[in-house]
Amino acid sequence: AVIPEDVDVAAFKLAVHGHVTQALSLSMADVLAMPRVELAAVNQCSGNSRGLFQPRVPGGQWQNGAMGNARWPGVRLRDVLDRAGVKPGAVAVRFSGLDEPVVNGAPKFMKPLDIDHARDGEVMLAYQMNGEQLPLLNGFPLRLIVPGWYATYWVKNTPQASVKPGESGFKTVPVTRLVPRSFFTNVTDDTIVKSGVVVPVRGIAFGGDCGVSQVELSADGGRSWQKTALGRDEGTYSFRQWSTQLTVPPSGTLALQVRCTNTKREVQPAEPNWNAGGFMRNVIERVQLTVA
Question: Who contacts 70 (Cβ-Cβ below 8 Å, separation ≥6)?
Answer without folding.
Answer: 40, 41, 43, 129, 130
